[in-house]
Amino acid sequence: MIYDAFQKRAINSTDSGNSVIVCAPTGAGKTAIAEYVIEKCIAENKGIVYTAPIKALSNQKFRDFSRKYGNHIGILTGDVSLNANAPILIMTTEIFRNTLLEDPLRLKNISWVIFDEIHYLDDPERGTVWEESIIFCPEHIKILALSATIPNAIQLSSWIRNIHKHPVETIIEKKRPVPLHHCFQAHNRVLDNFEQLKKNIYEQVKRTHPRSKKHHSFQNFRHEEKTASANKISSLLHHLQENDKMPAIYFAFSRKRCEKLAFESRNFNFLEDQEQAELKDIFANLLKKYGLTQEPSAIRMRGLIENGVAYHHAGLLPSLKEVVEQLFTSRLIKLIFTTETFALGINMPARTVIFDELRKFYGQFFANLRTRDYYQMAGRAGRRGIDTEGFVYSRINPLRIELDQINKMIFAQPEPVLSQFNLSYASLLHLYGTWQDRLYEVYPQTLHFYQANKRSRKKALEILHTKIRLLKEMDYIRDHKLTDKGKFASSIYGYELLLTELFFCRVLEELSSIDLNIVLTSLVFEPRKNQLNIKLPHQIIKINKKLSPVVEDILKIEKKHKIRPLTKKPFFNLSEAVEKWSTNESLAVITDGTNADPGEIVRYFRMVIQILRQLRAIPFISSNFKQNISRSLEMINRDEVDAEKQLREGL
Question: Strand, coil or helix: what is 640?
Answer without folding.
Answer: helix
